[in-house]
Design goal:
heterodimer; A: two-stranded antiparallel ribbon; two-stranded antiparallel ribbon; 22 helices; B: 345 residues; mainly alpha; Cytochrome Bc1 Complex, Chain D, domain 2; 2 domains; two-stranded antiparallel sheet; elongated
């Protein structure tokens, strides 16, 4: 009894410590923020003559100048010291690796939270144990990755300080009021993570488990705030605010943080991190599946891969919509920036991006179709897969059609001009919105098939339900394609708005059809169990492809986002006068992204290997819940 | 079911014959015409019909005991898509796009034939038969492949590496990013916020909605709306300025951009690329009026670095037209094509 009370006390103390850690940076920041805001007043008190006002380049509000102008750099050892290598490429590498690991360690705790919660609410004890073990395995992997993230962060800062001192000095002078908050958030994140991880066994049951779960919530809140702060820097570099035309800080740190692109970047990155994290864990499971020697291991890793894939895809589905919002805000912020991205210099990179997005969805669908193979009774759906392939690929073909076509002058002449009557129509946003929504809706349909693969509905209205579902999906396709066609006949501002009903249609399919399917499958007749582990090796390669595509796409999008500033360190405020202020060729960028991807995967394999050393030492009972052929992961779908 | 499949099979057979006829030039390529404006949906519709047709053909042949092996189904379907893209769609699709489409089709075929274990086994069977080489014929084939495949790969490599006299591929930027502002006739215009001063209603006030309501209608051809005829002598406001813009267009621009604004004017084919086709949804329909204002004013010579390879001979019209004339001609271009300029509100 005393032991239980002691554990409770420990847990509550741990939770309080975490809340304290969370509040610490905020408490520290209050006087800092206040100081930031009051500083100009202090200047004012010293004498009116010293007060100089400036106009915010974005908010257009007046503020009292509280900082130095952005330095006008010159190419030389003072502003751009260098090794005998392109400094930008070194920074690119350091930044990208830090971002990969940062995304991974921010995403995995969210997974842990979800999986741990599933374990807590699942009534099936065996399943609950399996979920708990899975969440624990995830956080263990993330712990090693967390150290690497911090190391890479250090390398990144040193790279900045060594190679771009003037630029980094300016950026840190602007963000001075929140720089230490960021550092303290890191302390809070680390402390919370360690308490969460090392307290796992002590808080395994009952009320203590709920406290443990609450800790994961706090951990994720801190992680998300950390990311928001980091995003504010890149938001400022792309769409500066809170400074005047000379780049002088005007005393309002909120304006500096809350730039035009900050919110869309935040949303896009949260979803992106989650999808990426899911992909990495799914690839880990796929690798372990392919290397497994026993049926038991195969079953476990098959299940793990499925859960990670499902979580990743759950965040992948809204990701294109978040991306669309971000691009819309970019266009609204600066037309030329939007055109450089979508129709100009970087347009081909966007086509590559569309190709990668398509690969993500194709891989997901392919995995689900393969997964039907481990269910008895799913044959009735398999014969229709060819039609899904066709619809999916039609959407994909439209989605990847370039607006700027690569062609020889002879082809250009044969085509009779730059514009093609078919490709020209597929190459614009209206068609692409239709294409991606068709792809996502088809993915949802594949999920619905998967969820009912080995089941036969026993509800009295099942026939009606099936017809309704068929009609709903049919109408969704008609609506999506119809709106895409309508987009050519209406003003651009209305056309942009059409994405809302298209997205609403897709999301309606997601929520209504999933809900309806769940109702229909309640108490359904099972044709046979899901035979975990009895899935084709091709499915696992699809998972690896999914993860690689995620990684490559993240690298690509990071490059696009960064290079859209062209020759600016801070857009229209601080010019990049280094010899590398030009845009790389598409080929060079692609090679560099591939190198970053390769390096990340080699290093993460090392992290996995370290994780596996720990697993080998774990007691045998830790594997007690590993799924074999008998147990049904009822909550998994 | 059988009747349905028979119809589908008939469609498939007719489609294949038509395409084959077009490839060997027995049947004119415009026998079943692709209608401009409807082509994008027509192509997708045709492909859907073909898929239905092939399903029917496969079903019928199977029921007659002449089923085509899955391996050959996959190969034939992929070949069909490649031929369709090359010979059916006109004007010809550049190789880079056909390569993308061909790759996606190949992936699609792979996904189809390997969607389940049974199909995958069927698909692999001929390959496995050759590799196992249990019969004399298969042994012979295996040796043939052993010789032919390296020759084929060598041929591709040689073809890729051999120096060619063709002009190199150009990654032309269709819409280079505009500057934040442009100076024309001594006045600076901010591209993000400037507006066409002639987009006005009958009271002379700027009115986007009013002008949008009076552009020509798109459909089978472009038709003027009732009571929206700029050439009516009583036309006022927006329509009057459209008429004036039209006069400027036909005095200066139509020689290259064509009287239908489709980039096929009298002199158009002296240039490569031919002038921009304003009726295409990828040109002015995607842009703000201020972008057009900047391009018309500065011409090809004013293209920024991003506009590489600067393949435009359009004169800088600021040297020939007033600011008002430029705005009016832009007004006319949007009116005539039935497109709306991009706006953000």
């Amino acid at each position: 009894m005393g032991l239980v009370a002691g554990k409770k006390l420990f847990s509550i103390m741990a939770l309080c410590a975490m809340i304290g850690l969370l509040l610490l940076p905020i408490a520290v920041s209050l006087p800092t923020l206040a100081m930031g805001a009051d500083a100009p007043d202090a200047v004012k008190k010293d004498g009116e003559a010293k007060v100089e006002k400036g106009r915010d380049v974005y908010y257009k509000t007046e503020g009292i100048v509280a900082g130095a102008p952005a330095p006008k750099t010159v190419d030389g050892p003072r502003d751009y010291p260098r090794y005998n290598f392109e400094s930008r490429v070194l920074l690119w590498f350091a930044n990208q690796q830090h971002l990969y690991y940062g995304s991974f360690v921010l995403a995995v705790p969210i997974f842990c939270m979800v999986i741990e919660f599933m374990g807590v609410v699942t009534k099936d004890k065996a399943m609950a144990k399996r979920y708990d073990q899975l969440a624990y395995d995830f956080i263990k992997i993330s712990l090693t990755a967390y150290s690497l993230t911090a190391i890479l962060g250090g390398i990144l800062i040193f790279t900045f300080l060594t190679l771009y001192p003037a630029f980094f000095g300016y950026l840190s002078s602007i963000f001075r009021p929140v720089m230490h908050i960021y550092a303290l958030m890191f302390v809070a994140e680390s402390g919370t993570l360690y308490i969460y991880y090392y307290g796992w066994d002590k808080m395994r049951e009952g009320f203590l488990k709920w406290i443990h779960l609450s800790m994961s919530v706090i951990l994720n809140v801190i992680g998300t705030l950390l990311m928001f702060l980091a995003n504010s820097w890149i938001g400022f570099m792309m769409s500066p605010a809170g400074v005047d035309e000379q780049g002088r800080y005007l005393g309002n740190i909120w304006h500096v943080i809350h730039t035009a692109l900050w919110n869309p970047l935040n949303v896009h990155r949260i979803l992106g991190n989650m999808a990426f994290g899911g992909g990495v864990v799914a690839a880990y499971a796929a690798y372990k599946f392919l290397a497994s020697k026993t049926d038991e291991d195969r079953a476990h890793y098959d299940w793990m891969g499925y859960i990670a894939m499902a979580l990743g895809v759950a965040f992948l589905i809204p990701l294109p919509f978040a991306g669309y919002w971000l691009m819309r805000e970019v266009y609204a912020y600066r037309q030329q920036m939007g055109i450089t991205l979508m129709g100009g210099l970087l347009a081909w990179l966007f086509i590559i991006q569309a190709t990668m997005i398509g690969i993500l969805f194709l891989s997901t669908n392919y995995y689900l179709w393969q997964a039907l193979g481990r269910m008895r009774g799913a044959e009735k759906y398999q014969r229709y897969i060819k039609y899904l392939v066709f619809v999916l690929c039609c959407g994909y073909l439209v989605f990847i059609t370039p607006h700027t076509i690569v062609m020889t002058p002879a082809e250009l002449k044969a085509m009779g001009g730059q514009q093609h009557p078919v490709l020209g129509n597929y190459g614009v946003m209206s068609a692409k919105n239709g294409g991606i929504n068709v792809i996502i809706t088809t993915t949802i349909l594949s999920f619905v098939w998967y969820m009912r693969g080995n089941k036969v509905s026993t509800v009295s209205w099942s026939k009606f339900g099936n017809i309704f579902m068929g009609c709903f999906f049919g109408c969704a396709y008609v609506n999506i394609v119809g709106l895409a066609v309508l987009g050519y006949y209406i003003p651009a501002n209305v056309r942009v708005g059409l994405s809302v009903p298209q997205v609403a249609t897709t999301l309606s399919c997601l929520f209504f059809m999933f809900a309806l399917n769940s109702f229909m499958m309640k108490g359904a007749k099972q044709m046979g169990p899901i035979e975990w582990g009895k899935i084709s090796a091709r499915s696992q390669y699809a998972l690896i492809m999914l993860a690689t595509a995620f990684t490559w796409m993240m690298g690509l999008m990071g490059y696009i986002r960064s290079s859209v500033r062209l020759f600016w360190h801070v857009n229209e405020i601080m010019r990049d006068n280094s010899p590398w202020a030009y845009t790389h060729t598409v080929g060079f960028a692609a090679n560099m992204i591939s190198f970053n991807v390769l390096f990340f995967w080699i290093s993460i394999l090392f992290v996995f290997w370290l994780g596996s050393l720990g697993i080998k030492k774990a007691p045998v009972e830790a594997k007690a819940g590993v799924p074999g052929g008998a147990a049904q992961p009822a909550g998994s779908h | 079911m059988k009747a349905l499949m028979s119809v589908a099979a008939l469609i498939g057979a007719v489609g294949i014959l038509l395409l084959a006829g077009m490839i060997v030039d027995i049947i004119p390529s415009n026998t079943v015409r692709l209608v401009e404006g409807y082509m994008p949906m027509q192509v997708l519709f045709e492909l859907t019909l073909f898929v239905a047709g092939f399903t029917g053909l496969s079903y019928m042949l199977g029921s007659m005991g002449m089923a085509v092996p899955r391996f050959w189904q996959g190969i034939l379907f992929w070949s069909f898509i490649l031929l369709y893209l090359k010979y059916r769609v006109y004007p010809p699709i550049p190789f880079s796009v056909r390569a993308m489409y061909g790759t996606v089709s190949l992936i699609a075929v792979f996904m189809w034939v390997s969607a389940n274990e049974e199909d995958w086994k069927k698909f692999k069977q001929p390959i496995m038969n050759i590799l196992d080489a249990q019969t004399g014929a298969n042994k012979l084939l295996r040796y043939a492949y052993l010789v032919l495949l390296p020759i084929l790969i060598g041929g591709f490599s040689y073809n890729a590496m051999v120096p060619k006299s063709e002009e190199p591929i150009e990654l032309r930027t269709v819409h280079p990013a505009p500057p934040a502002s442009t100076k024309v006739h001594g006045k600076t215009y901010t591209l993000q916020t400037s507006q066409n001063p002639y987009r006005v209603n009958l009271e002379g006030k700027f009115d986007q909605e009013y002008s949008n309501a009076n552009i020509v209608e798109q459909g089978m051809g472009r038709l003027m709306k009732p009571n929206a005829n700029p050439w009516d002598k009583d036309a006022q406001g927006y329509l009057k300025y459209v008429r004036e813009g039209g006069e400027i267009f036909f005095q200066n621009c139509h020689f290259c951009h064509g009287d239908n604004l489709n980039g096929r004017g009298l002199h158009a084919f002296a240039f490569n690329p031919i002038p921009a086709n304003f009726t295409d949804p990828g040109t002015i329909a995607q842009l703000q009026e201020t972008f057009i204002f900047w391009r018309v004013s500065k011409g090809g010579i004013g293209l920024p670095n991003e506009g590489f390879p600067w393949a435009s001979v359009m004169p800088p019209w600021e040297q020939h037209l007033t600011v008002d004339e430029i705005w009016k001609v832009i007004l006319f271009e949007y009116w005539h094509t039935g497109y709306y300029p991009r706006t953000w509100d």
